[in-house]
Amino acid sequence: MEAPKGKYAWTVTVGEKGQIVIPKQAREVFGISPGDTLVLLGDEKRGIAIPPGGAFAELMKTVFEEEEKE
After folding, report:
1. Cα gap 68→48, rounded to integer Å
2. For a Cys-Cys bond, which of 30, 40, 41, 67 suits 52, CB 3.0-4.6 Å?
3. Model's pTM, two decimal places?
4. Which residues, in sequence order, are bridge partners of residue 48?
5. What percent of the chain has pLDDT over 90?
6. Taking Cα atoms as reference points, which of 34, 16, 37, 35 lies closest to residue 24?
7. How do the domains of the chain map onto residue ranges?
8. What value does the CA radius of gyration of the chain take, rounded to a whole number of Å?
9. Is the pLDDT of residue 70 over 80?
């Protein structure tokens, strides 16, 4: 089955120290480079998400802009 355009799925293995390796294609698609800081989001019912670079910064920008308007 072919994935819809812009949708991806990869598998990763968790090492003994709890580390995962982000697949090369995923790093390339999302512009992840060595030394980058990522945000790991978790929901016990929905799972774990690692948003693409800048997504969290954009969210915080929106949140703080809304606070300034009040």
Report:
1. 31
2. 30
3. 0.67
4. 42
5. 36
6. 34
7. 34-69
8. 15
9. no
Read off the tokens for 61: 């920008």
Q: Contact, 53 vs 32, CB < 8 A?
A: yes
Owner of token pair 């989001």: 41
pLDDT surpassing 70 at residue 62: yes
Structure tokens at 58: 């954009």
- HSE at residue 66, side-chain half, CA atoms within 13 A, is 6
Neighbours of 6 (CB within 10 A): 6
Contact 21, 13 (CB under 8 A): yes
Q: Tell the residue number behind the tokens 């030394």, with chain if given.
A: 35
**Sign of the C-alpha dihedral computed for residues 9, 30, 24 and 48 taken in this order:** negative
Per-residue pLDDT tens digits for 18-36: 999 999 999 999 889 998 8
